[in-house]
Amino acid sequence: EVQLVESGGGLVQPGGSLRLSCAASGFAFGSYDMSWVRQAPGKGLEWVSGINSDGGRTTYGDSVKGRFTISRDHAKNTVYLQMTNLKPADTAVYYCYAFSTWGQGAQVSVSS
Asked: What mean pLDDT is predicted for residues 27-33?
């Protein structure tokens, strides 16, 4: 069974940092690109970041470029999203996506 399990969400003040993790199982993790997608309250899905199968190429949405960093650990079958200088506009449920599968989501709330 393919599974993606996110963790690391929470409440943080503006300017703060969080790191999301997505643990993958049930497929050949090292052979697939991975993505992070978010959905803010009352809004549609927004692609945030992607990383190719070997981790050598990363891409970011304009709204997070320079603040977020995606990475992957093949030994742990896990992809990470390091988020810094968080803004209230980053408040959303963050989903991990790969192999036509979505994780359950991790809530990130940025508020003073």
From this structure: 94
Predicted local distance difference test score (pLDDT) of residue 24: 97
Write out the two tokens for 106.
């991790």
Predicted pLDDT of residue 107: 98
- ∠ Cα 8 12 14 (to 5°): 135
Helix (H, G, I), strand (E, B) or coil at 62: coil
Q: Contact at 8 Å (CB) between 101 and 34?
A: no
Residue 22: partners with Cβ closer than 8 Å, 6 or more residues away: 4, 5, 6, 7, 34, 36, 78, 79, 80, 81, 96, 103
Mean per-residue pLDDT for 20-47? Answer: 96
* Per-residue pLDDT at 43 exceeds 90: yes
d(CA 15, CA 33) in angstroms, rounded, equals 29
Q: Residue 48, Cβ neighbours under 10 Å: how many?
A: 23
What sign for the dihedral angle of Cα 47, 49, 54, 57?
Answer: positive
